[in-house]
Request: fold
Amino acid sequence: MKRGYLLSFFIITIAFIFIGKLFYLQIISNANNQNNLRSSTIKKLFDYPERGYIYDRKGTLLVANKQSYNLMIVPREVAPLDTVEFCKLLKIDKAYFLKRFDKAKKWSRRLPSVFLAHLSKEDYAYLQEKMHKYKGFYIERKLLRNYPINSAANVLGYVNEVNDEVANKNPYYQPGELIGTTGVEKQYESFLRGIKGVKYLQRDRFNKIIGPYKNGIYDTLPVDGKDLTLTLDSELQQYGEALMKGKRGGIVAIEPDSGEILSLITMPNYNPNLMVGRERSKNSVIFFSDTINKPMYDRSLLAQYAPGSPFKIIQGLAGLQEEVITPKTSFRCFHGYKYGAREKEFMGCHCGIFNQPIKLQQGLAKSCNSYFSNVYRRIIEKYPTASEGMNAWSKHIRSFGLGQYLGYDLPQGQKGLIPDAALYNRWYPDGRWRATYTISNAIGQGQILTTPIQLANMTAAVANKGYYYTPHILKATSDKTPIDSAYTTLHSTTINPKHFPPIIEGMHDVFKTGTAKHVRLKDIEICGKTGTAENFKRIDGKKIQFEDHSIFVAFAPKKNPKIALVVYIENGGYGSMIAAPIASLMIERYLTGKTTNKYWENRMLNTSLEAVYEKQLKTIKGESTEE
Amino acid sequence: MRAQRNNIFFGVDFTLVFLYLFLILFGWMNIYAATHSDEAVSLFDFSTKHGKQILWIGLSFLLVIGILFVDSKIFERFSSIIYLISMASLAGLFVFGKKINGATSWYDLGATSLQPSEFAKFATVLALARLLNDKQYDLKLFKNQIKAFFIIFLPAVLITLQPDPGSALIYTAFFFVLYREGLPIYYIAIGGFAILVFILTLAFGFNIVLLSTYTIFSLFILYIIYYRKKSLKFQWMNIMGLYAICGLFIFSVDYVYNNIFEQRHRDRFNILLGKSNDTRGVGYNTNQSVLTIKSGGFSGKGYLQGDRTQGNFVPEQHTDYIFSTIGEEWGFLGTSLLIIVFTFFVLRIIQLAERQKTTFSRVYGYGIAAIFFFHYLINIGMVIGLFPTIGIPLPFFSYGGSGLWGFTILLFIFIKLDASKSYEL
Reply:
């Protein structure tokens, strides 16, 4: 009887061993492996929605999609075929066929590659019926971005194929999918792309699809991307781009009472259609490696410069607000302003009014350096210490959106720089610095840096008499998503609205009697301010002065302004020569749709600064022209 | 009494019948899961695997009725003839057999095929029971041992030659039966020891195992000499012989493994011993089966929801690897339940066998318990990656008519034997 226990004992032992092993397999080692949809038996197939279109404020189509048909090949799967017939179908010769075939084979035998790119729609329709005869070949449909108008590439941006890095960071994307990389395409990627649909397919151990997984209960339908309407005025944008031909620089135009960006121009730029499809990678290398013209560099958003004279507008406003001057306060100018005892403590001035009282309005119209140096000095010296004065000044200036990221809805930007006491306390650790140390700030030079869009926004705030809306590019979406409240929130400056009229009058005088009177318009009262920023480059330790950058800010009409803009031309010389006419032409075109000043229009369209840039480049390269 | 005798279910152990039905139905459900396709076909479409299995199940019910009808004495009486026919059918395979998967184990009967080795188990266990039935038969005697071994080894050798060594392995189960009936323990001890040494030699190599085995032997002999105060003076020949045989065995394991085994056999062992990690080639089946079981987790993916099963990731899933379907769709709950049910099933047979009044019935019952257990041990051990790949079916679960009928006959003859003890009183 006892002998009967051996087998039973063995049986029970084995039962324990098996259950133990299964416990280990199914519960312990399986603990973090519960997601069925990730299993190797399920193939995820994406159904891509159409990317949203982009329109300008008047409904002009700026970005659309186009179908692209590529004949793909998987060399391993190619079966013997009638090459003569096939070549005839494709309208290629046999040598070319063999060449393409070898190339595809060299790249990969298993993976699909493009055999013939960009078939026409007709070819596609015709070929599609015959493709079943040719194993290993198939036609792939792809949606590509298409830009009906060659304009505003810097605003619209481009799409790129997702690389592994992006795909790892953002689980929505698979490598090879499209993602907005710059401009609006990047900023509003989530609107434009829509939501891709997912199909789960069951596959067997040979990776063959054997049907939908669980009859498709986990499948989702794609949601089409939203169409976007931009605040951009495409006509104005194109006009501006035409005027800027041959020059480097940027134009930013804003609608003051809404903050909507009407045009955002950078020059040189590129044709957006070149950043699409198969040519994209080749062209992008060319564009990005062009370090002289920098077509991919959006000057209107990224270029930081000393603003020069237009800064006097808010300098004057700060003085009025701090009550260190009134519109009636006058200073005298002696072809400059001596702010210290020493010889070099003197700031030159070109206003040409020698030793006569200059009031605010005239000072601004004539851009008198002495006047605004006095204002600046009074603001700083109003306070017991220079630090307090500096911070009070800085606060007023910053309230115009300068010295900080504006917060507009484009993915690039620069802060610029508005100095404050902390900066100078770092420079002069003993704290013994005074207003005169920083006197260049008075006329928009010194440490001050601004970007064109910041200046445009500043001009809009002046046009609005003390407030601005953050500039933005998105006007509406096709599904009426309300735009971000950040762009509908009013930002007040620290300047009381009552201080604006004398300043605006001064800006108006610029067109009446001042530096821009040659481009004034008969029916439109423009207020503006020319500016010239000195342009130094340090080469081999030597500070070399180049042709000045020319700047012009303006808004119009004077009453109830509809457009505020900044035109900025690199090495454009004196501001009134190029920047002012362009500003005037832009304003008239926007407000009336016409151009009355044909002379200036032709002159601007035909002005090229290439010679200046050439000369500058030679200097930089060390081939000085003096030799 | 007469009325009861006419009732064929009189005395039948319904615990076993219930377990049998449970296993068969649960088995069929899993065959359905492993072989059904999404196209809607009738359950009874006999062109499908699950449809055919229904047919086999139906026919095996007829077999059950038939077995319960006949007089239980007939099995004892005809056991020799059945054994001879069965051996002849095994031998006949070498002439008339049909080669499937490299082994000539099948008779081609047109629409279907028959695997005589499935019935040889039943014939062998009958013959063994018959042999041991004699009360005077003493398994301590060498000549009696030889007779019993002959009955066991004849079919085992025939099946090995097919070659189907996996199925032949089942016949080692009968040593448990012989032990129960009086075979000295050292057969089992030596067998167990040989298997242990075999595995250790493969895992750790010839030298280490030989050295450590000799060390253990020597320590054991020293222990006997010093502590038991026994003089081994006259046994040194035996001791030397033991050393020699042991060394020879270890050496031969090495030799057999490297020279007699085919590469595919070596691969199976290597994978199990962790020496090789080829999950795409040779190790594919085991690896896929283990992954499939793993993916079931605690409660499984649900019946017919096993995506790995539907994707046919495990080859032969409806036959030898059917357990992986249970693992995927029913999870740990299903697999452990099945193991418990199987364990109870086998233990119940043993329990009933011990109660038998005739040695014939007891040996028979014990024999089929050992057969069921070995199938289950080797099959599940393989599917969950504990044993090397040995292709034998899981009783009542794996797809296939011959297997199902073979196991049904095995079981119900015992149920009949057990039932008849009641009215032999």
About this structure: Chain A touches chain B at residues 1, 3-4, 6-8, 10-12, 14-15, 17-19, 21-23, 25-27, 29-30, 33-34, 36, 39, 41-42, 202-205, 210-211, 213-214 (CB under 8 Å). The two ends of chain A are 120 Å apart (CA to CA).
